[in-house]
Amino acid sequence: MLRIIVLKTCSSRGNKKRYNTPTFAVKSSITAEIKPVIIPAIKTVNIVFSLNCPSNPFRPMNSNKSAGIIPRNKLADGNIFILNPGEMGNNILKVIDTRTAKLNEIEFMLKTPVIVLNVKTYAEATGEKALEIANLMNRISKETGTSMAIAVQATDIVMCTKKVDIPVFAQHIDPIKPGSSTGWTLPEAVKAAGAVGTLINHSEHRITLTDVDTCIKRSKEIGLDHIVCSNDVPTSKSIAAFSPNFIAVEPPELIGGDISVTTANPSIVSGTVDAVKNVDKKIRVLCGAGVKNGKDVAMAIELGADGVLLASGVVKAKNRESVIRDLASGL
User: Fold this and answer.
1) What is the pTM for the complete model shown?
2) Which one of 3.30.160.20, 3.30.565.10, 3.20.20.70, 3.10.20.70 gives the CATH number of domain 114-329?
């Protein structure tokens, strides 16, 4: 799990006297501002870091674990450090100089391999029932270390993001900017509600390729992760030209069925992976339609996918916990 650290100068007389170097602490106001954009699982970060060694390692206070080497010119108020906590300390993944960086330069994706659940508009996953599923996934994700995310209806985003640590996605955004667009879904609105990402172009809410392009651009502008849905290899290849974070291939005829795409049409998964990677190697590929168990998930990974997107296999299940744990076993 990544940790976001935003710096501000704080007093530490002992440290300054010994090495004549500044001490920095988390500036919580900025952390709260960027939390929905970057890593929703991070709550309040209250760890203080200090530059407390002449050789210039960036170390957590009260710890002997090195957090990596930081150039002195990067130690400035407001700078953002992306850390990957590990057994040997916090590995610095990226330093963002907020004096020059723009928000759309700060891009992060779901940790892969990942299980993404789209609860659609099922009665079994509306309102408090959506939260029940989100809480269940949240608990199993923590217990198993499996990366999971949930896409809920727009009206349930706020409730879920306040209660769970797993990433919460919107199910749709429209290709619009703030203004007079009554009844449409504004990307800024789902972000303000707490969503960290969105589905785009689901088979049950298709939009044109032009609008797909606009939605991807809008997502990047405001820092929303995004999963663009596709129905076949050629469409996936076309979408890849827009460089989205994720493409999820789902043959419509298999959605909601009893046979997984990994069994009924494995070539569409491997073919999409090859086609997308030939256009842009950074794009992650998910697959969905009929995915219901750990075997289906394992097969998806074997075919080259970075995870799965599913719905009814969990939402309609009699024993959701058993199904989710089985799905996690496939990763």
Assistant:
1) 0.72
2) 3.20.20.70
